[in-house]
Amino acid sequence: MPNIPMPAQVEKPVAAASTSKAPAPLPQNFSKDQAKKAVKALLAHHVKDKERQEEKTLISKDEHIWLVINTRRMPTKKSNKPSRINLPHPPLPPPPATSVCLFSKDPQRQYKDLLHEQGVKFIARVVGLEKLKGKHKPYEARRALANDHQVFLCDESIMPMMPKLLGKIFFDAKKQPLPVNLKKKDIKTELAQAISSAFFHESLGTTSTLRIATAVHHNAEQVLENLLAALPAVVGKIPDAWDNIKSVGIKTSGSMLLPVWTVDPAKLYSAEDVDVKVKSKAEKKRLRGEESDDSMMTASEDESAPSSKKSKKNGKESKQAEPVAVPAPSPKKAAASPKAAKQAVVPEPKAEKEPKKVLAGKTKDALPAKKKTAGAAGRSSVKASVIGKKKQ
């Protein structure tokens, strides 16, 4: 692979203020041989995949190699400012192979003149805030801007305004602007360091990614060196470092994840996590038991309630059915007042009427009488006349 010179050969930069966390050394069970096998297998897969794409399309896209880290727990906080990761080999080919765009404050012409004075020729375009709010505000204009360049740099003083101005187009394409300090005296070195470094964006999920190489412009040894240099730096920025890491792998945008390192299953969950899980299960069972007891109690109460109501109703009916005991009148009072004797006699209960027969939902009495039609009346008169003639 031909070595393309960088726009400015500078020494390895010192870590920025956002990279204050110390790198986490590789664990003892980390195998470099396994990482080397994964890198070689990924590059071999890319060569075959590229040949298939060339048969279908005329222009094939450059595939980036991503370092993928899966964690056990999700972070509680997220920083919009990415962390700079210094790599032995730039993850992207240097300009002009990589087109670079710079977002600056207004006036835009002032920063263009500043770049021209310091001999910065690898910035393809400078866009000010006024242009972002006006010319590039429509969706199509922002999408065209994202497709025209591979790397976007931004003055760190206006970095918080970028998510609202750029929208999700840049973030979905993994082209978030990278912060640079345009107040430094040597702007050329600052911009060259930003282009040759990788930037780690914290995620609110359990998966974090970092671009470490390009499959076309890097060989297996360079990819392995970038992998071994980036992994400790990225893990050091994750809370709890290696204790929170579940697995590490590498992939391209068109391939599956190839494992590089996986945590021991016996150490996947700590004793505290197991105790918490056991306690939560016991609490769930206890709560379920209480709920079932409550439901049984309520069900028994519901069942007993109608029976008590029925018994009350039956009691009322029995009371109504029992004859009232009336004391027998004395003979003197009975002879003196015959009306009182008549009132004292208990009337016999009336016999209940037999239920009417129901035919097809209607009682017998409710059925309408059949109406004789004209034809039926004629037939009956004919029959009567015939019978009369026979009798004669």
Automatic annotation (TrEMBL):
<protein>
    <recommendedName>
        <fullName>Ribosomal L1 domain-containing protein 1</fullName>
    </recommendedName>
</protein>
<comment type="function">
    <text>Regulates cellular senescence through inhibition of PTEN translation. Acts as a pro-apoptotic regulator in response to DNA damage.</text>
</comment>
<feature type="compositionally biased region" description="Basic and acidic residues">
    <location>
        <begin position="349"/>
        <end position="368"/>
    </location>
</feature>
<dbReference type="InterPro" id="IPR016095">
    <property type="entry name" value="Ribosomal_uL1_3-a/b-sand"/>
</dbReference>
<dbReference type="InterPro" id="IPR028364">
    <property type="entry name" value="Ribosomal_uL1/biogenesis"/>
</dbReference>
<feature type="compositionally biased region" description="Low complexity">
    <location>
        <begin position="321"/>
        <end position="348"/>
    </location>
</feature>
<keyword id="KW-0175">Coiled coil</keyword>
<keyword id="KW-0007">Acetylation</keyword>
<keyword id="KW-0832">Ubl conjugation</keyword>
<dbReference type="Pfam" id="PF00687">
    <property type="entry name" value="Ribosomal_L1"/>
</dbReference>
<keyword id="KW-0539">Nucleus</keyword>
<dbReference type="GO" id="GO:0005730">
    <property type="term" value="C:nucleolus"/>
</dbReference>
<keyword id="KW-1017">Isopeptide bond</keyword>
<keyword id="KW-0597">Phosphoprotein</keyword>
<feature type="region of interest" description="Disordered">
    <location>
        <begin position="1"/>
        <end position="31"/>
    </location>
</feature>
<comment type="similarity">
    <text>Belongs to the universal ribosomal protein uL1 family. Highly divergent.</text>
</comment>
<feature type="region of interest" description="Disordered">
    <location>
        <begin position="280"/>
        <end position="392"/>
    </location>
</feature>
<dbReference type="InterPro" id="IPR023674">
    <property type="entry name" value="Ribosomal_uL1-like"/>
</dbReference>
